[in-house]
């Protein structure tokens, strides 16, 4: 694990440095060097992660400007001491959520994701935690997310007593409420049992201070 984290860190740092260089460099020869460094970072990721290099390049080398982590929001919605979860395309379960759109605030995006994925209207009440995905979630930094990820967990409250009927969609096949000791198989790239337990603690707490790492 430690060895994997080290090569992954090196590859991500090379990618970040090369992307910044391409953004700020003016000399054509420097541009060529930074482009090659970026290619090497993708080749490292492809070789060590056993992923086709073209797929990595499409995910890893498709942005411009100074590189920053992507933001992923996750909604903690509770009903009768059970947490709302949705079944993803891979058959595993997660808190409703996803990437924060460029034209949305964290609160607005979280509310939108719950409605789109679970058919439930909520309000965003408070931040539970802001966490680094590579440190906390299995798979962040590999596969579909070869870059930094900042995860924001948001405690939400249901606003309509008569919840809308759930409609299966291209991302989500089911929704359900689960007690902490009867959680389904989790999509750990999105959320771990430890993170969901953290959400339960925030839900039951009268005074909760947001966690961060």
Notable features of this structure?
single chain; 213 residues; alpha+beta; Nucleoside Triphosphate Pyrophosphohydrolase; 2 domains; eight-stranded mixed β-sheet; 8 strands; 23% strand; elongated
How would you describe the overall organization of this protein?
It is a single chain. The longest helix has 23 residues, at about 1-25. This protein has two domains: about 1-60, no CATH class; about 70-210, Nucleoside Triphosphate Pyrophosphohydrolase (Alpha-Beta Complex), CATH 3.90.79.10. The chain has helices at about 1-25, 30-50, 55-60, 105-120, 135, 195-205; strands at about 70-80, 80-85, 95, 95-100, 120-130, 150-160, 175-180, 210. The two termini are about 20 Å apart. The model has no long low-confidence stretch (mean pLDDT about 85). Strands 1, 2, 3, 4, 5, 6, 7 and 8 form an eight-stranded mixed beta sheet that branches. With about 210 residues, the protein is an alpha+beta fold. The chain has six helices and eight strands. Helix 1 packs antiparallel against helix 2. Helix content is about 40%, strand content about 25%.
In CATH, the homologous superfamily of the largest domain goes by the name Nucleoside Triphosphate Pyrophosphohydrolase
Task: Let me know the average pLDDT.
Answer: 87
Work out the radius of gyration: 19 Å
How many domain modules? Answer: 2
Total strands: the figure is 8
Sheet with most strands: 8 strands, mixed
**Given the structure, what is the number of helices?**
6
Share of helical residues: 25-40%
Q: Please mark out the parts with pLDDT under 50 across 5 or more consecutive residues, or reply none.
A: none
- Alpha-carbon distance between the termini? 20 Å
CATH fold label of the largest domain: Nucleoside Triphosphate Pyrophosphohydrolase
CATH architecture of the largest domain: Alpha-Beta Complex
Task: Tell me the name of the CATH class of the largest domain.
Answer: Alpha Beta
The arrangement of helices and strands along the chain is HHHEEEEHEHEEHE
Backbone shape: elongated
Q: Report the β-strand fraction as a percent range.
A: 15-25%
Structural class: alpha+beta
């Amino acid at each position: 694990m430690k060895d994997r984290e080290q090569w992954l860190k090196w590859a991500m740092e090379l990618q970040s440095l090369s992307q910044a260089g391409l953004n700020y460099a003016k000399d054509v020869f420097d541009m060529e060097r930074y482009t090659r460094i970026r290619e090497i970072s993708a080749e490292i990721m492809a070789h060590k992660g056993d992923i086709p290099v073209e797929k990595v390049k499409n995910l890893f080398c498709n942005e411009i400007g100074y590189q920053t982590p992507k933001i992923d929001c996750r909604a903690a919605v509770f009903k009768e001491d059970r947490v709302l979860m949705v079944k993803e395309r891979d058959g595993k379960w997660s808190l409703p959520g996803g990437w924060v759109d460029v034209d949305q605030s964290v609160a607005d995006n979280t509310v939108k994701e719950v409605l789109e994925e679970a058919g439930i209207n909520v309000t965003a009440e408070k931040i539970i935690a802001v966490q680094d995905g590579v440190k906390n979630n299995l798979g962040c930094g590999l596969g579909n997310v070869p870059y930094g990820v900042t995860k924001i967990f948001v405690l939400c409250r249901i606003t309509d007593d008569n919840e809308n009927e759930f409609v299966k969609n291209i991302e989500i096949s089911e929704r359900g409420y689960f007690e902490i000791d009867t959680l389904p198989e989790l999509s750990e790239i999105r959320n771990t049992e430890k993170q969901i337990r953290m959400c339960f603690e925030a839900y039951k707490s009268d005074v909760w201070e947001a966690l961060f790492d």
